[in-house]
Amino acid sequence: MGNTPYARSQLASVTARGGAWLVDMVASLAAAAVVSLAVGAVSGGLADLAFLLVAVGWYVVSEAVWGHTPGKWVVGIEVVDTDGEEISASAAVVRNVTKILGGASLLLILAGVVFIADDLDNQRLGDRFADTLVVRV
Predict the structure, then answer these.
(1) Residue 60, domain member (yes or no)
(2) Residue in 83, 57, 61 with CA at minimum distance from that of residue 2
(3) Cα-based distances in Å from 71 to 17, 42, 46
(4) Are the C-beta atoms of residues 136 and 20 closer than 8 Å to each other?
(5) Does residue 1 lie within any of the structural domains?
(6) What's the number of domains the chain is made of?
(7) Range of the structural domain that residue 93 is part of
(8) Tens of pLDDT, residues 20-63
(9) Which of 84, 80, 49, 83 is nearest to 67 (CA)?
(10) What is the Cα–Cα distance from 78 to 59, expressed in whole angstroms?
(11) Which ranges does the record mark as transmembrane (predicted)?
């Protein structure tokens, strides 16, 4: 086990994280599409930007404010720092920027799963950069 205040049994599994990702992906894309359509009705040039801001903000804002996304809440997991404390806004940004980069292809998504499965603290690359853990609540 790594140097964290959590036992391995308290860390979120790849399956739980995948379920949360699926819920969040569907919900965030739906919300981003609605906002994008509304903004596009007023200014077509800003529709793509609105879509991106909502899709990314879904993860960053909810993790920075509540420690979990709606999908993580549904499956009963949350993000904490490696000391077990609430994550900072900057940690939420760091872990989610890497998620955006890592979600660009199926190969990179699979690489993220391998990182989680291969790490003693179930951390993907973004968690390692941000010093965060995803744990069961």
Answers:
(1) yes
(2) 83
(3) 9, 31, 27
(4) no
(5) no
(6) 1
(7) 8-136
(8) 999 999 999 999 999 999 999 998 789 999 999 999 999 999 99
(9) 80
(10) 12
(11) 20-42, 49-66, 100-118
Amino acid at 68: H
The whole-angstrom separation of Cα 50 and Cα 47 is 5
Write down the mean pLDDT value for the chain: 89
- Which residues have C-beta within 8 Å of that of residue 38, sequence separation ≥ 6? 50
Q: Tell me how many helices (H) and strands (E) the chain has.
A: 6, 2
| Between 84 and 99, residue with greater pLDDT | 84
Is 3 a member of any domain? no
* Residue 85 within a domain: yes
E-state strands within the chain: 77-81, 132-136
Angle between helices 47-66 and 14-42 (to 10 degrees): 140
Per-residue model confidence as pLDDT tens digits over 99-118? 777 665 667 777 778 888 88
Contact 60, 92 (CB under 8 A): yes
Measured between alpha carbons, how far is 55 from 36 in angstroms, rounded to an integer?
Answer: 10
